[in-house]
Specification:
The chain is of the alpha/beta class. It starts with a helix and ends in a 5-residue tail after the last helix.
């Protein structure tokens, strides 16, 4: 359908194609018409274990790489995937995630509320539970939190995010011992209120690709972030981020947060000037 739409629009100078591995007929039509394609690669789809059958993962990664090599440029939000794609001969441009203006204004308002003071209580586990890697990470972290009774020294674990109420339907059992509170999907105002008073945000993944955009958003809101090393990819060393190796290191990270709260510097907005220059060259027929 989209390939036919391209045929009806002669004279296209450039196509921005999100995750082109899903849209091969469209890519082929653009190639046939000599329209340069820039891939918007939020993450390498085949590096996410639940996206592909395990026995086919290597072959499917090869397919995705071959598709991206057919594009004139791949725009990424992950430092690690930029490195990988570059080594496989894919022309890349790293543009780290930064929220759009409306979301940025909300996050800055939360930061101002936090700067005004007030009690900080609870650790917020915020994730899109519909994402397999995030949902599995949430489940393992909740189980660890309850087994170690981490709420006794560090306060409750507050679980929120898109589809979290569906991923954890037995709320009564989850909250039985008092250490976990399931808040589910929150409206923007309720989420902002929560962010203004939690002690920290918590991110945990054992697999997954791309970069976790919520780390950037939490830091912009002035919320310290605890993240295991895999979840912290592309954000290593950021002021306000406390990393831990695995679940056994979580308690130490929580203790560090309590004893030495980090200064949370807001991430700087990325500049898009060099990316725009590359896109202009593509439209003008310039080389890679």
């Amino acid at each position: 359908s989209w390939a036919r739409e391209v045929a009806a629009r002669p004279g296209l100078g450039l196509a921005l194609l999100e995750d082109p591995v899903y849209f091969l007929p469209l890519l082929e039509e653009l190639e046939r018409r000599s329209v340069p394609v820039a891939a918007v690669c939020h993450n390498l789809e085949t590096l996410a274990p639940r996206q592909v059958d395990g026995t086919s993962a290597v072959r499917m990664l090869g397919l995705e790489l071959s598709v991206l090599r057919r594009c004139r440029l791949a725009v990424t939000i992950s430092r690690e995937e930029t490195w990988l794609l570059t080594n496989f001969g894919v022309p890349c441009h790293y543009l780290p995630y930064y929220p759009p203006e409306l979301a940025l204004g909300r996050l800055q308002a939360v930061r101002r509320r936090r700067d005004a003071g007030g009690e900080r209580r609870g650790i917020l586990l915020l994730a899109n539970a519909k994402n397999p890697q995030s949902g599995e990470g949430m489940a393992r972290l909740i189980r660890h939190w309850r087994e170690r009774k981490l709420h006794e020294p560090f306060g409750p674990l507050l679980v929120a995010g898109f589809h979290s109420e569906r991923f954890f339907p037995d709320r009564a059992a989850l909250e039985a011992e008092g250490g976990v509170r399931l808040l589910g999907t929150l409206e923007p105002g309720a989420l902002d209120e929560l962010l203004s008073r939690v002690a920290a945000g918590l991110c945990y993944q054992e697999s997954g690709s791309g970069a976790l955009t919520r780390i950037c958003e939490l830091l912009l809101a002035g919320v310290p972030v605890l993240a295991n090393r895999h979840a912290a990819r592309s954000y290593h060393g950021r002021p306000g981020l406390i990393e831990f190796a695995g679940l056994d290191g979580l308690e130490g990270a929580l203790r560090e947060l309590r004893e030495r709260p980090p200064e949370v510097a807001p991430p700087e907005p990325p500049t898009a000037t060099s990316l725009l220059e590359r896109l202009v060259r593509l439209v003008a027929g310039g080389c890679r």
